[in-house]
Amino acid sequence: MTAFAPKTASGAGRTDRFYLLMIVLPCAFLALLYFLPVLNVLVLSVTEPQPGIQNYQMLAESGALHRILLNTLRVSLSTTALTLLLGYMFSLGINSMAPRTRTVALFVVLASFWISALIRAYAWVAILQPNGLINQLLMGIGLIDTPLILVRNELGVIIGMVHYMLPYAILPIYANMAGIDRSLLRASRALGANRWRTFWWVFFPQSLPGLAGSGILVMIFSLGFYITPAILGGGRVVMIAEYISIQISETLRWGVATMLATVLVMVVVALTIWMSRYLKVGGGLASKGGKS
Amino acid sequence: MTKEKPELEFAADCLSILREKTNGKMVHRRRFLSALGALGVMPLALKFTPAHAASDELVVVNWGGDAQPAFQTIWADPFVASRDGLPTVVEGSGPSSGKIKAMVESQAVVWDVCDRNLPASIDLGQQDLLEKVDWDVVDPAKLRDIHRTDWGVGSYLYSFALTWDSEAHEIAPQNWADFWNLKDFPGTRTLRNNFEGMLEAALMADGDAADAASLYPVDVERAFEKIREIRENTIFWTSGSQSQELFRNREVTMGNLWHTRALLLREETENRVQFHFNQGILFAGAWIVPKGNPAGAKAWDFVASTQDPESQVELFKALGNGPVNPAAGEMVPEDLRADDPGNPENYAKQVAVDAAWYADNYADVLNRYTDLIAS
Amino acid sequence: MNASLFPRIVAWAVACFLALPVLIMLPISLTPNRYLSLPKDGISLRHYKSLIDDPQWIASIADSLFVATLAAMLAVVLGASFAIGIWRRGGMAERVLQPIMLAPMIVPPIVHSVAFYKGWAEIGLLDTYTGLILVHAMKGTPFVILTVAAALANFDPRTEQAARSLGASAGRTMAWVVLPQIKGGLLSGAVFAFFISWDEIIVALFITMRQVYTLPRRIWDGLEDNIDPAIAALGSLMILATVALMILQTIKKR
Fold first, then answer.
1. What's the whole-number mean pLDDT along residues B141-170?
2. Which one of B362, C41, C96, C164 is at 20 to 30 Å from C18 when CA atoms are compared?
3. CB atoms A283 and C141 under 8 Å
């Protein structure tokens, strides 16, 4: 471990306590009001229907669960990759725009927030369905004869999810890019590097924290989707969140539901810890004084 | 309720004052005491808020939409006006099993009467989450025997009915075998993303007779095999509004829909969309009462009041839900009788579901069905 | 010029993609039908009228705005405090605590529903503003942590140390040096937290009944039955309000 709290000569003790308090207070708040009630329910995974690890055994044995987990992973990964790609390009693009036009572009991002997930899903159905806007357009100009099947399948789900996630990806990426020191770029150019090398060696590494933060956010968010897949997937794209929801609301198999929730949390937390070793996730270690 | 310890009398006294001050918006005593115990944790002010339905009103919960005001005017308001009726509100937030379980297990039940179906009444009743029906208050004579269980009172009839787009299919499909016949009736189908009423249709398509004796217990594997045949040509609807959407947009040409939806569609599309009760799968909605409901036994007074045949006919006119009281059948206006699933002629064409089979197999088969449509 | 032209073209393409459902909502909101649809013969303002005529819509909008605003504020305080503390101290806390603090974002909402129903029933917070604001704030906190942490990533902790060594108190350093640096992160975190609450339905359906009746719940109540185009009208109005606000701002700046 190379990381440690940087020590300063003046008032180190009090400063440390100040920042320690900044960490401890929110943690205590969440511990009491979040983790207590949530753990109280997650513990059902080893007590329902009877004490033991039979719910976890199910995870290893059930083919149905594997299929649903695989579906979830595939859809979430596709969504994350596409969202990050589009979000990064978008942020890069508006970064080089005049302030006025940039405001307009950012406005579009914010405006899409105002529409509930539900109505967005229906808007996408109207756009993508066999006699929807896109197919009518394509058939009108004679590009296709029979309508393309764009929705009520996995493609439709991914389109809807990418659309939902894009603003969430763009804001952190853009916030991070806006904070990148331009003088470094100028220095790099002055030293004779071309645009591409300057981007790849100077700009891109500095934009990684934003990208990683967004990546985690989008991935985690995608894992939890279920209204959008249910509507745009024609009922056939069942993701883990919907499955858990069925277990809680309908079959009352709370043991299985909480087992899946627990596994989800553990996997994502482990993944995040692992990723933070390689990426400067949110002001990570590598940027600390200790290493530089 | 547990007995109070003497030192808590003061707290109880405070509570009674508080009750008066909050105009009967009740603060549950046990909750309040446990809240006092947690004083170190939460500022006091946070807790002086009503968390429970007051026991001087009755809360009826259904699934919202048009049914919410309809239940209110047809059943709740007259009950309030009746001799011993409590002020009654209809809430539309959806009494799912999960919510009922959460309420009962944390002893914080806020609902009195819930709008579910007969299979659910057995399923939840067997898990000790419901109050048993008081058959001295509710009149068993106003129901067919199969429309009542120990925990549930039939409230209305609804059917899973064969619905089709008459512009896509000039020859009307007669039965589920036609539904499954993609060759002679080409077009996308829609089934529900829950197996209720779907497996029976599949088995009838496979040649089973349209009667409960030959369908139950359901041969799940054979039904699944049949659904696999058309799975690639099927969109699975997730909500009633979506099933309508699919026909409205002409995304599907045939579906297994709630007859109430089919009725709305027929009207809205000016007869483009048609349905019939032939081989329909007939369910009964049921009133259930969560264990420890705030209004106690009064809940059954309300349920009994909904057995009035005239009110059931009113509901039928408003929403299309068929009267469950056989006496109501004759009160349905002549011209509407063809749309009443409880009408003797229609009743005979349909299969009455075996609620006990559903209750015994619900969780397991639902999970397998979900896997079937997802893979 | 040409090197940055490509990203700009992509940016506008993405903007169009984002705007498409937004744009299609405007005509949907003008449909004369009582279900979501594009108007075929003639348009109608009935859904705007029903928004105004029905006091319940207004009440729900007020509920949602109130809950979302307070939840976002609380989330920003919790999230920013944690992210800054971690940034400054690093170490184990960062590697282990931070992922754990993301839990409210990972745990499926339906599990939250049961957890908070049981928890809030214990302490009498069911169907209260406090109860819902707390849950929404905690759901928003991870977003603030992520955005603030991303903003801090490019900010050298030595700047802060320098300010301290020049004699500034911890509080002043925070207000004058740290917070201005991470304005963008704070703002986007707040926006996220606000919209998380604004759109949240699953927990609200469980822990609120009649005292607190947020907008998504009002929408949901009709969902099983019929999706009311009034929500398209509402979305359109919200967007128009945002446009108006932005135009006002640009005028003020000039």
1. 97
2. C41
3. no
Kindly state the average pLDDT of the residues B188-206: 97
Q: pLDDT (tens digit, 9 = 90+) per residue, B265-285? A: 999 999 999 999 999 999 999
Closest CA to A45 of C115, B365, C119, C97: C115
A74-78, B7-11, B103-107, C131-135: which range is least confident on average? Answer: B7-11
How far apart, in whole angstroms, are the C-alpha atoms of residue A180 and residue C154? Answer: 6
Q: Is residue B52 over pLDDT 50?
A: no
> What per-residue confidence (pLDDT) applies to B35?
45
Residue B4: pLDDT above 60? no
Q: Does C10 touch chain B (CB under 8 A)?
A: no
Strands B58-61 and B113-117, sheet pairing: parallel
Q: Rounded to an integer, what distance in angstroms lies between the CA atom of residue B348 and that of residue B341?
A: 9
Q: What 3-state class would DSSP assign to A62?
A: coil
Main-chain dihedrals φ then ψ at residue B284, nearest 5 degrees: -115, 125
- Cα-based angle A156, A157, A159 (whole degrees, multiple of 5): 65
- B203/chain C closest Cα distance in angstroms: 28
What domains can be seen in chain C, in order of their start residue? 22-53+216-254 (no CATH), 66-213 (1.10.3720.10)
**Distance from C-alpha of B87 to C-alpha of B56, rounded to nearest angstrom:** 7
**pLDDT (tens digit, 9 = 90+) per residue, B78-94?**
999 987 788 999 988 88
Is some CB atom of chain A closer than 8 A to the CB atom of B81? no
Note whether B101 contacts A254, CB cutoff 8 Å: yes
As for the ipTM of the complex, it is: 0.87
Q: What is the pTM of this model?
A: 0.88
pLDDT in tens, A175-206: 888 878 888 888 888 888 888 888 888 899 88
Put simply, the answer to whether B34 touches C123 (Cβ < 8 Å) is yes
Residue B10 pLDDT greater than 50, yes or no: no
pLDDT in the model for residue C225: 62
8 Å CB contact of A129 and B249: yes
Instruction: Give CA–CA dist A147/A143, Å, rounded.
Output: 10
CA-to-CA distance for B372 and B220, rounded, in angstroms?
11
Inform me whether the C-beta atom of residue C226 falls under 8 Å from chain B C-beta atoms.
yes
Res B304 pLDDT > 70: yes
Average pLDDT over residues A8-16: 60
Q: Please judge whether C222 and B51 are an interchain contact, meaning their C-beta atoms are less than 8 angstroms apart.
A: no
Query: What is the pLDDT at residue A245?
Result: 92
Tokens representing B154 are: 């039939």
Closest CB from C11, C89, C116 relative to A105: C11
Are C181 and A179 inside 8 Å of each other by CB?
yes
Over residues B119-128, the mean pLDDT reads 97
Nearest CA in chain A to B368: A64
Is C21 in the A-facing interface, judged by CB distances under 8 Å?
yes
In 3D space, the residue among B161, B238, C122 whose CA is nearest the CA of residue A33 turns out to be: C122
- Residue A110 Cα distances to A168, B2, C144, angstroms: 10, 53, 17
Q: φ, ψ for residue B234 (rounded to 5)?
A: -125, 135
